[in-house]
Amino acid sequence: MLSKLKSLRIWLLLWVCLGVLGAVLLARAALLDLRTAFETDARIIHRLLSQRGVQHDAILATLALLQPERDSREQRLSSLYSQILDVAQREPGSHWPDAALEKAESTSHQLGRPVVADVDWLRGRYRMVLAATPASHALTIDLRSSVPWNDWPVSAATSPMRVALVLDGQQFVLQPGQSRSGGWRFDFRKHLAAESQPFEVVAERQVGWSELPWVSIFLWLSLLAVALAGLRSVLKQRDERRRAQELLRLGQVARLNTLGELAAGLAHELNQPLTAVLASTQAARRLLDDDEPDLATARTAMQQAAEQSRRASDVLGRLRRTVERPDLSGNQQQLDLRAVIRGVLYLLEPECQKRLVIPVQEIPADLPAICADPVALEQILHNLLMNALQALEQVPPRERRLTLRVCQEQARWILRIEDSGPGIAPDVLPRLFEPFFTTRNNGLGLGLGLSETLAMSMGARIVAENISPRGARFSLILPDEKAPS
C-alpha cells in the first residue's frame, strides 16, 4: 500500500512539474502575443501623431510662403483642420502680445524651423511659431483634436492601453486606459518624428492575471493528466506482464527442480523394498533347493522374480541418475547481490502489498560482486522470502517486519532474512530441511529442502534459527568471493 502511495506521489509530482512548465510556456506565449500587439498599436499611434506634427509644420510653412489675409486664413484652416484653434501673425514692425511668442520667434529664427512657444496642459493646447519674412505666424493647436481618432488602432474608451504626450516632465493624457495592480507592465516611449514639436509619445499597458490563457492552461493540465494516466497504466501493465513472465520462468525452474527432488526421493524410498524383495527371493530359492528335491518350476519362478527385482532396481537407479540435478558449481559467476535482491523483491511486490509488508534492506554500499549461480540464488531467495511472508500472516499487520541484511564474516558474505513471525517450533527446527516435511496444510515440504540442495550445489549453505523476542532468521552463507577458474 505504501509502495503504491509512493508511486502515486511520484506521478503526481511529475504531473505538477510538467503542468507548471506547460502553464509557464503558455502564459509566456500569451504575454509575448500581448506585448507584440501592444508594440504594434503603440507604433501606429506614434506614426499617426507624428504625421499630425509634420502637418502642422507644413501649415506654418504654407502660411509663411503665401502670406494670406488673416480672416481668410483663420476661416480656411479651421474648416480644414479642427485641431487649429487660432492663427496669429506678427506684422513687420510690430510685436507679439506676450513674451513666450517673442522668445519662440527668436528661437525659430535661429533654428530656421517652427518651435513650440508654450503648452497649456490644463486646457490641452499648445502654441508654435515660425519666424518668416515679412511676417511671422503662430498656431494654437488643440492636443486632443490633433488625434486622428478615425485611424486610431484601439478603442480609446475600452482599451487597456494608456497613451500620453510628455514634455519637460508634464503630460497630457490622450487615452486613459485601464489601471490594474500586479501582473506585467509594457512600456513604449518615442519622440514625435516632427522635430519642431518635441513631444514624447508614452504608451503603457498593465497585463493582469485575469488576462492569462486560463482555458488553455486548464486544457493542458487536463490533457497532461490523461496522458500521464495512460502512460502509467501502460507501464503498470508492462511491469505486471514482465513480473508474470519472471514468475512463470521461476516457477518452471522450481517445478523442474521439485520434480527432480520428488523422483530422487521416490527412487531412494523404493530402492530399499526392492532390495528386500531381491534378498527374500534368493533365500526362498535356497530353501526350496534344500527341502524340495524336485522343484524346478519353483526355482525357475524364484529365479525370474530375482531377475525382475534386479531389473526394477536397475531401472530405478537409472531414473535416479537421470533426474538428479547436475553440479551447479560450473554455472557460478560474479553477481551483483543487490541487483538480485532487488529483482526478487520486484517479483514478490504483489505478495508484500497483499500482506501489508514493507521489506527493509540493510546492504553495505561497498558490497562487492559475489560468486554464485544466478538461477539457484534467485530461487533460494524466492523460497526463503515466501516462507517469511507466509509466517508473517500469523501476526497482526502492525507487527509484521521483514528485514534483508547483508554482512561479512571472515571471507564469506552472509544474507540474513529475518521476520517477526511466530518463529520455528523447537521440535520442527531439526527437521526443517527434510524432504516432504511440512507444517502447513497443502504443503509439499520441498521448498526448504530444495533451497538447501541448491545452496550446497554451489558451495553455499543455509542456517535457520529463532530470534528474540519473536521471529525467525534464515542465513544464506554464500560461497567465497572468487569464482572458480
Structure explained in plain terms:
- With 485 residues, the chain is α+β, with helices and mostly antiparallel strands.
- It is built from nine helices and 15 strands.
- Helix 6 crosses helix 8 and helix 8 packs antiparallel against helix 9.
What can be said about this structure in brief?
The protein is an alpha+beta fold. The chain has helices at 2-66, 70-80, 99-111, 214-291, 296-323, 337-347, 349-354, 374-392, 447-457, and strands spanning 84-90, 115-120, 125-130, 136-142, 161-167, 170-175, 184-191, 200-207, 333-335, 360-362, 370-372, 402-409, 412-419, 461-466, 472-480. It has three domains: 29-211, no CATH class; 244-324, Signal transduction histidine kinase, dimerisation/phosphotransfer (DHp) domain (Helix Hairpins), CATH 1.10.287; 330-480, Heat Shock Protein 90 (2-Layer Sandwich), CATH 3.30.565.
